[in-house]
Amino acid sequence: MTTSTERTLILIKPDGVRRGLVGEILRRVEAKGYTLTSVELRTADDDLLAAHYAEHEGKPFYAPLVEFMGSGPVLAAIAEGNRVIEGFRALAGATDPTAALPGTVRGDLGRDWGLKVQQNLVHGSDSVESAEREIGLWFPGR
Ligand code: RTP
Ligand code: MG
Questions:
Q1: Which residues are catalytic?
Q2: Residue set of the binding site for ATP
Q3: All domains of the chain, ordered by start, with CATH?
Q4: Which of 2, 44, 73, 130 lies most in the core, judged by the most C-beta atoms within 10 Å?
Q5: Cα(85)–Cα(141) distance, rounded to whole angstroms?
Q6: Where along the chain is ATP bound (predicted)?
């Protein structure tokens, strides 16, 4: 177990904002004990989304994913705490909300809506390198 404080980028995706789940999701992050150090609601443009999702370019879900992510406001946040990257991904649950375990954000609050891309409420960085890269995109200078 490491004890160095980490940061992660959390996004509440447009489905979460549209459904009024911002408070519920941020409550879970804070109740787990992580600290929110930046929070901002905004609609992402295509350049930001292309940079954020560069690793998925060329995959079949890429275009619908970028379209969905730009379809309305997103809540972007930086959360801090020891092992917050792993901890937030555990809170979020599996990518597919149908398979995500109850107790997780996606498992408790998400489902398959029969749409072109999985609308799964949240994003969390998956490594220290991704977190610092993504924080630089969404919160330049922080
Ligand atoms: P995220 O990046 O959003 O935290 O989610 P993740 O790591 O669990 O999933 P990832 O593999 O990075 O995929 C990014 C997002 O693309 C959408 N997706 N749809 N087969 C599909 O329809 C599919 N696969 C991925 C999801 O919105 C996923 O969160
Ligand atoms: Mg990912």
A1: 123
A2: 13, 61, 89, 95, 106, 120
A3: 5-137 (3.30.70.141)
A4: 44
A5: 20
A6: 13, 61, 89, 95, 106, 120
